[in-house]
Amino acid sequence: MNTTLSSPNIIAVDVGYGNTKVVCGYSRISNAIADTSPHANPVTNPAPSAQPVWTEASFPSVVRTVDSNDAGMELDAHEDRIVITHDGKRYLTGKKASSSVASRIKHTNYIESTEHELLLRTAIHLAMRESGRVITHIDTLVLGLPVSGYKAHRARLKTIGLQQRTVPVPKRLQRGYGAAEVSVFVHNCLVLPQPMGAMRLAAEQLPLTDGVFQEGACTMVVDPGYRTLDWFVAEAMLPDMANSGSYDGGVSGLLQQIANKLAIATGKGRVEADAIDKALQTGSLQLDYQPVDMKPYQDMLPGMVEVEVAAFLNHLDARRSQINRVIVTGGGAHYFEQALRTAMPVCHVSVLDDPVMSNARGYWLYASK
Questions:
Q1: pTM (predicted TM-score)
Q2: C-beta separation of 113 from 196 below 8 A
Q3: What is the per-residue burial (b if ≥16 Cβ within 10 Å, else e) of 1-20?
Q4: Is the pLDDT of residue 107 over 90?
Q5: Digit-coded pLDDT (tens) for 4-33
Q6: Is the separation of the CB atoms in 95 and 59 below 8 Å?
Q7: What DSSP assignment string belongs to 79-111?
Q8: What is the pLDDT of residues 84-105, one digit of tens each?
Q9: Furthest-apart CA pair in the chain: how many Å?
């Protein structure tokens, strides 16, 4: 087995409106043994390929206050339910922060919010859990911003990232460390436009001879997230921020349209976006103990997505005709892929593996090399 280990002190965190993603390690592992004999058959015994292995975690961007209803409960009994004290109040975060569907953060300037801080602390907590070590310092913390807010908020987010913060230690590590919390120091903080992470990840998977690295080659990352739709243009992998941008939209806008149509058709109250997202994928929604056939709403979705795609493509103007590769990432990638293929038929359109994690993985690679 050949393993290339990574620096343990790079942590990349993508705090999204829908989910928060953290990456703290990367390696390439191969279990195959190459046949180096002169008669080796590349078909029956191909050269070993190194598979990427990520040390990472993802959880909903949900924060709820511990209240009187939680009295007497062992709130942190599950490792995916994390209790954090902040400014004298106790909060729950993590995959099991809520047993029911919960609303996501909605602050316009969310980097200044308590929720953003708690999600960042949770991400560092999970980096400890996934890497199996207590983290007292971070050499480089990588964070991201939507393209449209990058220039205005980059300096502020860097300042926030550099702050010392107290993070709960995972239970399995507390005995060896001797404390339930740890102060974490950050030596350097990088702030990137969010889709730049996916661009960097895509570059990692391409040979240096690929046309995407050649002068004049234009690539665009389309990142439909939970509340924003970002697009990021690069020429020969160099950012073209003038033709990149973002706006409020993405998956939540589509789901809200479906929710409104459902409310009118069924006469029921508001349905949470998470429930609709899942129902669109399964084809059925359980509403007041009655199944609702989601096919009519599945059929509506492509038209809604086409409107979203047309809206942001209008911003590209002349640059649009120069784009020859489109990379789709983000939680809404599966909704937007076909609409982009239809709208840009001459482009090579591809979706990155595990698109929810793509930006955070690319952040980590950006800081590591």
A1: 0.87
A2: no
A3: eeeeebeebbbbbbbbbbbb
A4: no
A5: 334 559 999 999 988 999 999 998 776 555
A6: yes
A7: TTSEEEEETTEEEEESTTS-SS--PPP--TTGG
A8: 999 999 999 999 887 555 555 5
A9: 73
Whether the CB-CB separation of 195 and 230 falls below 8 Å is answered with yes
* 196 residue type, one letter: M
Could you give the CA distance from residue 327 to residue 306 in angstroms, rounded to a whole number? 17
- 333-343 helix and 295-313 helix, angle to the nearest 10 degrees: 60
Distance between CA atoms of residues 313 and 336, nearest Å: 13
Give whole-number Cα distances, 356 to 27, 261, 304, in Å. 19, 27, 21
Separation CA 236–CA 203 (nearest Å): 11
Helix axes 194-204, 358-368, angle to 10 degrees: 70
Mapped to the 3 state alphabet, what secondary structure does 139-162 carry? CEEEEEECHHHHHHHHHHHHHHHC
